[in-house]
Design a protein that fits this description.
Layout: E1 2-4, E2 7-9, E3 13-15, H1 24-32, E4 38-44, H2 45-50, E5 70-75, H3 82-92, E6 96-101, H4 121-134, E7 141-146, H5 153-169, E8 173-177, H6 191-200, E9 206-209, H7 215-225, E10 229-232, H8 242-250, H9 261-278, H10 281-295, H11 302-310, H12 315-325
Parallel strand pairs: 3-10, 4-5, 5-6, 6-7, 7-8, 8-9, 9-10
Antiparallel strand pairs: 1-2
């Protein structure tokens, strides 16, 4: 069990917020395949505050009854702008408000946001207090943090000041990413730091993040660090099976077989269908293409299928690939290099995990 405030989750592996990825279709697929909880892609506070109930933007706050529990993640610069945006997320039906102090995207207009708030603990703490005061008490507030701006002692001190005050303020859970902001997505995530944080805050709810590309990675982080839960981020793109696979491993069962080609096809087609429900027609193929590049890793002809998806320009191209490469059922395969399937070189602003 993983407990986040009043929420009780039956699996300690959850779907992380991923900018540009963890939209409603991705989260719905993850939920269907075993994710107990998911977080909507990160949105800036000013963007949320300005959202109107229009067809072109409605998908950003879209939820269905079966999606719960679901969280929404906020990022921004000014403490004054967070409370109103947080309340709007609650009004939209989200069960948790998550604050992003982890994104290593460059500062906006010279102002700190995301992970750069770790360099100004007073402002970070004020944001947390403002949101916790504004949001109804029954709605958990959580925060995502990296281990610091860099590896200096000052960054370390700032991290522990923020996380300690966060728990004192009433934050229900903290997710810690084992890289610094300076690292972005380069180099290994320092899991030993997560273990250290666990030892310092033994009675608090902690989740870990970083280098979780397979179900085996998720279980290993839980065992090696002692965190209460883990967040599947880049490792869940095109891999919604990571949740059921982790559940099997945690039950002491062998790693399940890779999904068959027809099982892959069914999930991919459902993902496309859900995207059609909320996105303009001319955006569906573009959005699905970046997912399908990752889905292709499960196919026994992975290289050829990946190349085909990369070349997709419209829905006709996409349906042609499904008809050609997914028509005959056969055994699937586990991706040969799950940590390097296309997102490794993406700009930080494209992921914000």
């Amino acid at each position: 069990m993983l407990r986040i405030g009043s929420l009780e989750l039956d699996l300690p592996v959850v779907q992380a917020a991923l900018s540009g990825y963890s939209d409603w279709p991705m989260r719905a697929i993850a939920k269907k395949l075993g994710a107990p909880y998911s977080i909507c892609e990160v949105m800036t506070d000013s963007f949320v505050s300005s959202l109107k109930d229009r067809a072109k933007t409605r998908h950003h706050l879209y939820l269905e009854e079966g999606d719960h529990p679901a969280g929404a993640q906020l990022m921004g610069s000014e403490p004054d702008e967070f409370p109103g945006a947080a309340l709007k997320l609650v009004e939209a039906g989200f069960d948790v408000v998550d604050i992003n102090f982890g994104c290593p995207a460059k500062r906006s207009g010279g102002r700190c946001r995301g992970g750069y708030h770790l360099g100004q603990p007073e402002v970070a703490i004020e944001i947390l207090r403002r949101v916790r005061d504004a949001v109804p008490s029954q709605i958990p507030v959580t925060v995502k943090m990296r281990r610091g701006l860099d590896d200096t002692q000052q960054s370390r001190d700032n991290f522990f000041r923020i996380i300690e005050t966060a728990f004192e303020t009433g934050v229900a859970a903290v997710t810690v990413h084992g890289r610094t902001v300076e690292q972005k997505y380069i180099g290994p995530s320092r899991w030993s730091f997560l273990k250290e944080v666990r030892q310092i805050f033994p009675g608090r709810t902690l989740l870990g993040s970083g280098d979780l590309f397979t179900a085996t990675d998720c279980v290993r982080m839980l065992q090696e660090t002692g965190v209460d839960g883990v967040t599947a981020a880049r490792g869940s793109i095109g891999n919604p099976w990571i949740f059921s696979q982790a559940a099997a491993l945690l039950r002491g069962e062998p790693l399940p077989d890779a999904p068959t080609v027809h099982e892959q096809r069914d999930v991919i087609c459902e993902h496309f269908r859900l995207a059609e429900q909320i996105l303009p027609a001319d955006q569906v193929s573009k959005q699905l293409r970046k997912f399908c590049i990752h889905y292709s890793g499960w196919h026994p002809e992975a290289a050829s299928v990946r190349a085909a998806f990369i070349a997709v320009k419209n829905a006709t191209d996409w349906h042609d690939i499904i008809g050609r490469w997914y028509a005959i059922d056969q055994s699937g395969q586990y991706p040969t290099n799950p940590g390097n399937t296309g997102t490794g070189n993406l700009a930080a602003s494209q992921l914000a995990e």
